[in-house]
Amino acid sequence: MKLLTRLFFIVSFLSAVSQLKAQQEAPPFWNEILDFKKQDSIQPPPQNAILFVGSSSFNNWKDVQDYFPGYPIINRGFGGSSLPDVIRYAGDIIFPYHPRQVVIYCGENDLAASDSVTAQTVFERFRILFAMIRDKYKKIPIVYVSIKPSPSRQKLMPKMVAANELIKAFLKKKKQTSFVDVYHKMLTQDGQPIDNIFMEDKLHMNKSGYVIWQKEIEPYLLK
Fold this sequence. Notes:
Elements: H1 2-25, H2 30-42, E1 50-54, H3 56-59, H4 64-67, E2 73-77, H5 83-88, H6 90-93, E3 101-105, H7 108-113, H8 119-136, E4 142-145, H9 157-172, E5 177-180, H10 207-217
Helix pairs in contact: 8-9
């Protein structure tokens, strides 16, 4: 009996160590990606859908389908992801779905991650993601939703504007692309972020913020 007890504790210990090691070795947000895979296995996503991909502003939009009735949507926003994260997981959260259209919100967290990240950095990262999608899907429309002016990140607003302008100018030269300017719709008349469309953290939006996004994004979605 004592031997069995010892064996049980040894096995339990080794299992815990193995799980901890796996967690330490896993790249950022991997568990969220696994959750997406589990969801897909339980309930396959719709075919020929519009794919929303990017960071927490999409991830937190849990009822996004309710805002766009008649448009089949797959929401694959995750965590506090930055563009390198979306690039890393493109094979998991973009390409498997064969979407009719891709809508991207990402870049804000890139700027917030480090002072060394510039508007040009965000633009170059976006170009890599854009090229990956275009290489896989030659003709599907790609929509980029501008970086939003979060009150908690007000000091980054000049970089946000610059990154938005670089991406907007780039997309203007590309076919089957759109740039959705939510940035200016989220400002007061004196150019400050509208406070009451954000949650208490002054980073993530409440329903009023998402109503603005709905109004700006919907004209660009494919029926």
